[in-house]
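re: ur question from yesterday

yeah so i grabbed the chain u mentioned. its 447 aa long if i counted rite. heres the sequnce exactly as i have it in my notes:
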Amino acid sequence: MEKSLKENLNKDFEEISRKASGQGIEKNNGNHIEEEVEKDAGKEKDMHSSLYQESLAMHRRLEGVLEVASKVRLRTIHDLSIAYTPGVAEPCRKISENPNLVYLYTLKKNTVAVVTDGSAVLGLGNIGPYAALPVMEGKAIIFKEFAGIDAFPICLDTQDTEEVIKAVKNLAPVFGGINLEDISAPRCFEIQARLREELDLPVIHDDQHGTAIVVFAGLLNSLRIVKKELKDLKIVISGLGAAGVAIFRFLIRAGADPAKILACDSEGIVYEGRKKGMNPIKEEVSRLTNPRSLTGGLKEALPEADIFIGVSVGGIVTEDMVLSMAKDAIVMAMANPVPEIMPDAAKKAGARIVATGRSDFPNQLNNCLSFPGVFKGALGTCARKITPEMEMAAAHALANVVTAGELSEDHIIPDPLDKHVVPAVAKAVADASLESCAARKMLEDNL
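ran it thru and got these structure tokens back, copy pasting raw so excuse formatting
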């Protein structure tokens, strides 16, 4: 049974690759933009303004970027009778007798809800559910274009934790997976944890798990270049929101030594006993890290650090701070649109490898490298959950898309449009789903 499911999944992943090739999604092959970044802030602002205006015009012209399409045509009364009444009564009866058959007879198996409450949208903050809708539409089209998954935006008009959890649970019968998006910390941690516990389908908070998977994939390839071991690294994390905490937890699970990690927020280095700006999640971090109770800020945290991971705010790291880091330092400065330190400045100060969240620099750490493939693999096995093993498999598969011949200081992660990413990540996640018993049994046995 398991062998048969694996064979079917392999065929599905091959089909994804074939379709992606047909759509003209080309692999970058490491040829990144090499021109010097425009230093004139005015010109950069003009460039962004142009993109903003073009996006605004497109959304106005199309009235949004998403639509619902029918898989069947209703050209005759017979067509209508099969797709709707009276014919539709038969799949209803089958599902009523065995609810698992909903995965065979409806859209559920290949449909994801992209859910937000509008409380932490991009870098715009708490802009509410209406203003969040364009972002959720954009996420939905990434699902469709990259992985062939049908996704629909769900923008909830509440920011009450219990109400969000209740709403998602009530919507769950329609969807094969839940992608939480742009929900503020620390509420996002409880919402994600509760939904994973209480729902019988895969749940990901992309700002947490999607970011952590991509960051760890980039780190794996960086360590291959600098010849260092994860367990030996001194790591500094800037930002303890959804992304920073998830990255911290992922690194610990992967083998990093928590005693060698320093985590910083807007109040400085986190340490056990600190009173200002703390919450239960930061208390958890403080108990595991910084055994010497070092105080101060990034200036005090960065000396001799092997890696800096920034998911905070732009311009807070100086060249002198990078200069104080260890030899062959790795800098992942992911604040957007302005990184914690610009790549040219970090390189000038001695960083060996620099990554950002921006598309106009090498090594873009973009969440769209993870969530389409993760859900494709999970949905392909009708998974009941996303396990740590599935997340770890996704990170390793993503890292391995960059071949030994392609790997370089300016190419530690695949391009977001690389057609090899989704099939590789999906297959690894599906295999891990089967091995960790997250997958449902072969549904055809219920026919």
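noticed a couple things. Residues 19-41 have pLDDT under 50 and may be disordered. also The longest strand covers residues 111-116.
anyway ttyl
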